[in-house]
Write a structure and sequence with these properties.
4 helices; mainly alpha; elongated
């Protein structure tokens, strides 16, 4: 299924490349000829492509990768942040300006 889609995309890319080359050649010609042929060129390019469909099984397992992310971050932060012992009366602390 993916090979078929890739082949189809490659065909569209090839067709678009040919359209670009043809347009470049027309631009090298006389300006009047280019303007006369321009509506036909616009019609060739106006080929809307449907949005690509995801193949089944192509999605990632979000719970596997992000399942318990807040907990894992919290656990890592415990290793980074050092606890300082403090008493029950937090109002008795004063700012001394010393950072150690």
């Amino acid at each position: 299924m993916m090979k078929e889609k890739l082949e189809e995309i490659n065909r569209h890319i090839s067709a678009l490349s040919h359209t670009i080359k043809d347009t470049e050649e027309m631009m090298k010609d006389n300006d009047v000829c280019f303007i006369k042929k321009f509506p036909v060129s616009v019609e060739r390019v106006q080929n809307p492509q449907p949005d690509p469909q995801m193949a089944s099984g192509a999605l990632i397992l979000v719970p596997h990768y992000l399942g318990n992310l807040p907990f894992r971050v919290w656990k890592k932060m415990q290793d980074v942040v050092q606890n300082s012992e403090s008493g029950d009366d937090l109002c008795s602390y004063t700012y001394t300006g010393n950072h150690t």
